Amino acid sequence: MLKHLVLRLLCAGLFGGAVMVDANPRLMVVDVDGGLDDEWALLALLRAQNLGLVRVLAITTVDGMTDINNVCVNTCRLLQVAQAPDIPMYRGIKNKDRETDYLYLYGKDGFGDLDWGWKPDLSRVKGMSAIEALARLTKEHPGEISLLCLGPLTNIAEAMRLQPDIASNLQEILIMGGNDPGKFGELGAEFNFLTDPESANAVLTQAKVPIMLLPVETCLNIELNFVSTEILRYLKNHS
Hints:
alpha/beta; seven-stranded parallel sheet; 7 strands; 38% helix; globular
């Protein structure tokens, strides 16, 4: 199918080329809410891992751009198509204050509502919860993990509440969230922080490690041209 082949081309461009080896790649855990924007970020991280720059220890999923079940399906599908290494995934918790108030910015399933014609292998999703996984990984790698947060901070705040050591056992927390002027389109605020402001406040005030906050303005109007030539050539030949 066209959409499947285009995604394969995208992944091929990201993972192609010479592989560099870094003796000390940055250890990372990535928390995602399953929208297309997070999947782009995962592809970039997988490319960095292929170059030996980072090592993704785990992916945790959080209710955000779509329902938590869709988040797991979307992420497993992307990793499967990308033929990514066996990175374990851990299901996070659903925001108790949310029912059906999703934006559906990327479709109801967060991935364009495409009819893929096949179901991804969900064996990456482990039985351990995201909270338990964060506690275990920070104990195994104290002070070494960069926690990259691409969705609402529900998982992180709950993990810090239940396991306070997590707040000091990380190396750093990298957050895509918030916005500078206090307004963003019709929302009036950036999506991740607006979805769970209590958790955002808890993480920002309780973390005892450096935090890098990337507001939404820095993510707008950015062009990523990883494999545009290959995709355009394929589309031209099959139009």
